[in-house]
Amino acid sequence: MEITARYCSKEMEQYGECVASKPSSWQEDCHTFKVSVAQCTSSHPVIQRIRQECAEPFVAFEQCLKQNPSSAINCAEHVTKFLTCAESVKVAT
């Protein structure tokens, strides 16, 4: 997350603002911003490794968000699992 914020802060900010301003329709209305974040981060090796090693908890988190479009707080457990996984990823330097 820190790496994404460091290299893609503009994209993340736009996506976050969109999600916050459209609580009931953010999945559709903010898709282009989500794609922008994904494109920005896709070339960074740490992010690629996290996506690979933590795909399962991230997919579970996204599924939870789809099931709870106006109550993202219900997905806190999924966020925690994903962040725990992401923090454990080691990248060879």
Provide the succession of SSEs: HHHHHH
Please identify the structural class as seen in this structure.
mainly alpha
Strand-residue proportion: under 5%
**Main beta sheet strand tally, sense and closure:** none
Query: Rg from C-alpha positions?
Result: 13 Å
- Report, as a whole number of angstroms, the end-to-end distance: 18 Å
SS summary, helix count: 6
Q: What low-confidence regions span 5 or more consecutive residues with pLDDT below 50?
A: none
Provide structural commentary.
It is built from six helices and no strands. The two termini are 18 Å apart. The chain has helices at 2-21, 26-29, 31-41, 45-53, 55-67, 76-88. It has 93 residues and is mostly helical.
Give keywords.
mainly alpha, 6 helices
In summary, what is this structure?
With 93 residues, the protein is mostly helical.
Question: Topology of this protein?
Answer:
Blueprint: H1 2-21, H2 26-29, H3 31-41, H4 45-53, H5 55-67, H6 76-88
Helix pairs in contact: 1-3, 5-6
